Structures are given as structure tokens and as C-alpha cells.
């Protein structure tokens, strides 16, 4: 008999079963951990995309509100009741309104 055959003959079948289960659970644990990491990365990617869309939507609303607000303020009534438009231009000392 060789050394391997002698070693196998001295090992109880229950020990072999427990060792196989331990190896199988180790592999299953590694697979579960990998799946969890991939799932967590996917959830993080979706959450980041949703946050980016929310920020973009808020920026659009702020931009539209600013345009509406500015267009409402640019027309003022003159002394005779006619509407007049104010013109602003950038100068070296700041903004000039005419």
C-alpha cells in the first residue's frame, strides 16, 4: 500500500464529509461576498445617477426662475406710462445701466 491509500483508510467517512462541506461552504461564501460587492456597486451607481439627475433638475428650475424673474424686472414703466427697457453693459468699473 502506498502512503495515500494508508492515509485514506485511516480517515473516517464523517471527517471526509465535514471537510467537503467546509470547502463547499467556503466557496459559496466567496461567491456570496462577490455577489454582494457587485450588488452594492450597482446600487451606489444608481443612487449617484439619481442624485445627478436631481441636481440637474434643480439647476434647470433655478435657471428658468432666474430668467422669468429677470425678464419681469427689465421692463419698467416710464413717467408717461409707456414701457421702457433698461440696458446694462459691463464696463471696467463694473456694470452701467442706461
Report what the structure shows.
- The structure is a single chain.
- The chain is an alpha+beta fold and 98 residues long.
- It has two helices and four strands.
- It has helices spanning 3-10, 13-74; strands at 75-77, 83-85, 88-91, 94-97.
- The strands form two sheets. It has a two-stranded antiparallel sheet with strand order 1-2.
- Strand 3 and strand 4 (94-97) form a beta hairpin.
Please report the total strand number as a whole number: 4
From N to C, what is the helix and strand string? HHEEEE
SS strand fraction: 5-15%
Termini separation comes to 109 Å
Can you give the mean pLDDT? Answer: 82
Note poorly predicted spans.
none
Q: What key attributes describe this structure?
A:
alpha+beta, 98 residues
Characterize this entry briefly.
This protein is 71% helix and 14% strand. With 98 residues, the protein is α+β, with helices and mostly antiparallel strands.
Please outline the helices and strands:
Blueprint: H1 3-10, H2 13-74, E1 75-77, E2 83-85, E3 88-91, E4 94-97
Amino acid at each position: 500500500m502506498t502512503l495515500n491509500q494508508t492515509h485514506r483508510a485511516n480517515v473516517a467517512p464523517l471527517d471526509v464529509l465535514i471537510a467537503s462541506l467546509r470547502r463547499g461552504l467556503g466557496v459559496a461564501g466567496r461567491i456570496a461576498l462577490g455577489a454582494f460587492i457587485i450588488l452594492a456597486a450597482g446600487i451606489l451607481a444608481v443612487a449617484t445617477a439619481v442624485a445627478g439627475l436631481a441636481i440637474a433638475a434643480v439647476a434647470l428650475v433655478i435657471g428658468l426662475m432666474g430668467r422669468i424673474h429677470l425678464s419681469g424686472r427689465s421692463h419698467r414703466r416710464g413717467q408717461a406710462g409707456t414701457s421702457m427697457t433698461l440696458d446694462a453693459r459691463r464696463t471696467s468699473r463694473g456694470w452701467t445701466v442706461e
